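Hey team,

Sharing the tRNA (guanine-N(7)-)-methyltransferase run so nobody has to redo it. Sequence (207 residues) first:
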Amino acid sequence: MTQSFIHIESPNYLRLQDLPTPPDWQGIFGNDNRLALEIGCGVGDFMLKTALDQPETNFIAIDFYNKGCDKTCRRIDRHGVGNVRVVRDEARAFVTERIPKGSLSAIYINCPDPWPKKRHRKRRLVNKEFIEFLLDYMVPGADFFFATDFDDYGIDVANALPGVTALENQFLPDLYRHEFPGYHLSKYMRKFMAEGKQIYFMHYKVK
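Structure output:
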């Protein structure tokens, strides 16, 4: 997909070509705090609120879209947030090449592209196979969060997650919930909710 390129000047933006494989994340953040990843940071409002709530956590926020990375950087820079780094890359490639195995304390995936046309749904990012792939990069007790506004995407992921035996559902006996107190809402979630849509929230932990 062709993107109009925005040159991002931010101390919190990491150019992919400058990152080793894998990077020294402790050196990049200047501490050994726990590491978390948001896949698809959008315009950065969820990441900003979450990073402010958890100053003891180092957050990596990735997005495929250059414009979203720019907006995320501008947002966190304005607020002087120092525990977020932003990278533009595709999720699977980034995790494989830039995240050490067994290093993530949390993964957040909020409202990924639902690929609504039936013939395109195989392009959806989150499924059982992708979640099992992520497990290698998470520590015991790590949190996995998923949220979507798209009904059949939410139901598909909710039905797939119990089959990932290394994860434990934090919402039992529910497979998902439409409300998640304390979990920040992104711009897109608020927009969808204003349109009368429900958000499907899921929260699991690595056993």
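The beta strands are 34-39, 57-63, 84-88, 104-110, 138-148, 167-169, 200-206.

Ping me if you want the raw files.
A.
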